[in-house]
Q: What sequence folds into this?
């Protein structure tokens, strides 16, 4: 795996509100936060660009809405912001894709000549997956750090339910099998970026 010197790490929605188990239910992948932190550290140490994405939910009951403590980044992310040697962007959004946020992610990447992005964060099958899919559609080479994401059990039509691990596997198969992204482990990315 070759990681460009200007490959951008896109850290999606790693916010305090996702700690509210009463709202979201139980999560999968308890090691995700450690892996996200490791990716941020590696990217910052190498001087590569890092994008911190925050979801400003418009839903009145969401823990992620503006003005609520849950809207803020988790402590380990907040303490890393501004510490890297490379470019950094804070982006806010109210939909699933970071490419529909403010400021414009695509324009920022293009100004830096970035053609590779690494996606990590929360939720695996929602905002992380949507950002990766759009990145692939827009012509970026996308790496999806599956073990640096997590999600929650989901309910669909007709009472169908999928557990968080099943949803994560479905995301991995859809992204990788569909050609949207290369699904990889964070350790592989950290080694390649070293």
A:
């Amino acid at each position: 795996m070759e990681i460009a010197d200007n490959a951008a790490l896109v850290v999606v929605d790693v916010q305090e509100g996702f700690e509210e188990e009463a709202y979201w239910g139980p999560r999968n992948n308890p090691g995700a936060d450690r892996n996200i932190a490791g990716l941020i550290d590696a990217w910052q140490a190498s001087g590569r660009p890092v994008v911190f994405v925050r979801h400003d939910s418009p839903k009145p009951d969401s823990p992620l809405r503006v003005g609520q403590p849950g809207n803020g980044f988790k402590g380990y992310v907040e303490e890393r912001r501004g510490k890297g040697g490379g470019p950094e962007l804070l982006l806010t959004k109210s939909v699933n894709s970071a490419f529909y946020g403010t400021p414009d992610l695509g324009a920022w990447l293009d100004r830096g000549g970035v053609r590779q992005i690494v996606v990590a964060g929360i939720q695996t099958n929602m905002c992380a997956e949507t950002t990766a899919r759009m990145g692939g559609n827009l012509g970026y080479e996308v790496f999806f750090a599956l073990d640096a994401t997590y999600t929650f059990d989901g309910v669909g039509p007709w009472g169908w339910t999928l557990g968080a691990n099943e949803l994560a596997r479905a995301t991995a198969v859809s992204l990788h099998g569909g050609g949207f992204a290369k699904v990889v482990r964070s350790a592989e990315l950290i080694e390649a970026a070293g």
Summary: The chain has seven helices and eight strands.
